[in-house]
Write a structure and sequence with these properties.
The chain has 3 domains: about 10-95, Rossmann fold (3-Layer(aba) Sandwich), CATH 3.40.50.20; about 125-185, Dna Ligase, domain 1; about 190-385, D-amino Acid Aminotransferase, Chain A, domain 1 (2-Layer Sandwich). Strands 9, 10, 11, 12, 13, 14, 15, 16 and 17 form a 9-stranded antiparallel sheet that branches. The protein starts with 10 loop residues before the first strand and ends with a helix. The chain has 14 helices and 17 strands. With about 375 residues, it is an alpha+beta fold. Bound molecules: adenosine monophosphate. Adenosine monophosphate binds near residues 153 and 271.
Amino acid sequence: MNHKLLPPGATIGLLGGGQLAQMLVHAGNAMGFHFVALDPNPACPAFFAGAEVLAAPYGDRVALAELAKRCDLVTYEFENVAVSGVEFLESQVSVPQGSRLLALSQHRIREKSTLQEQGFPVTPFWIVRSVAELMEAHEVLGLLMLKTVSGGYDGKGQQKITSAAAVEPSFAELSRKAELPFIAEALVEFKQELSVVVARTPSGEVAGFPVGENVHEKNILTLTRVPARINPSVEAQATRLGEQVADALSLVGVLGLELFLLPDNTLLVNELAPRPHNSGHYTQDACATSQFEQHLRAVAAWPLGATTLHTPVVMLNLIGDQLSRMLEQLDRLPAAAHLHLYHKHEIREGRKMGHLNFTCDDPARILETLNSCGIWTPSLLENALR
Ligand code: AMP
C-alpha cells in the first residue's frame, strides 16, 4: 500500500458521479484537488460541482483505463460497481479503498459471515436456496427478513415473513427478481436504528464521527438525529465497534456501519457501506470536518480531521416530490436549515433529490418548524424529535 501523501493539485478519479461524488468534489475543491468522474450520465451530480465527466458505463475498460491515466488515485462512491472493474483499475492506478471491502459489502452473506468470523455481532441469518431451507430458517429463527444477496439497497429486494404461510409466496416473489441464494435474517425487534461513520488512513489512524439515530420510512432513510437519544455507554460501544471493524477490514477511507440497538442495549451490525454514508451527511454542517473531507483526507493519506460535533443537528432527506414541496416554500427556509441539492433534474418516486441539515439545540422548535412545512410524516417527526 502506497502511504505517500497526495498533494493539492493532484487529480482524483471518481468511479460514480452521483450525489456522494458531488459532495466529495465540493469538499475536495477546498483541499486543492481536481476531479474526473466516470459515470454514464454526462450531466451527473458531480458535473455540477465542477468535475470533468468521462461519460461511459462503469465497466467500460477503455474508459476505466482513461480514468486511470488521468488520475493520481481513484475512489468509488457506491457499492454497485463491478469488483472486476475496480480490480482492473487497481492494476493501473492507486485505489486506496481497494476491492476487497467492496466485494464484501456487495454480498450480504460474505459480509455477515466475515464479520461473524471476526467476532462482531451480526443479525442471526440463514442461507436459503430452496423453499424447504426457507421453512427451516423460519422454524429456527422465527419472523424473518428475506433478502437478495446483492444488488438490493433502500429496502429493495426484501420480503418480511411473519408466518409459515408466507414462506412459499415470499420465496416465489424474490425468485422473480434475483438469483439464489437468498439470505434470511431474523426480524430484529430493535429499539433504535443507529449508524456510525468511521474513517481510517493507510497508516492506521482511525476516527469515528458521533453516532447518528436513524429513522426509515418504506426502508429508505428519512432522517438522522445527532446526538442520538442513547446513553453514553451505547455511544462508546457503537464508536468502538465501528473503529474495530475499520481496523479488522483494513479500511482506507470512510465506512458507514448501520446498527440495530436491541432492548438490552447491545448492538448488531446490519450492513456496511465502504464510502460516505447518507446518515453521515449531517457532518457537513455540524462537525469540525465533514465525512466527505474526511474520506478524501484518508484516501490521500493526510492526517484525519477532528470529528467533534459543534451543534445538535437533524438531517432530513428530500425524497421524490418532497423536493418540489421544499422549493415551494424556500422563502420560509429557517436560518438554521442548510439545504444541499443534488442537481437531479428528474424527480422520481423514492429518488434522493437533496437533504436538509437543521442545526438547532431545541428539538421542539425543529419539530414545530418541520411540522409546519408539511413535507415529512407528522407521526414520524413526532417519534424522532420528541
Ligand atoms: P437494509 O437494506 O439491510 O439496510 O435494510 C433497510 C431497512 O430495513 C433497515 O434500515 C431496517 O429498517 C429494515 N431491516 C433490514 N433488515 C432487518 C432485520 N433483519 N430486522 C428488522 N428490520 C430490518
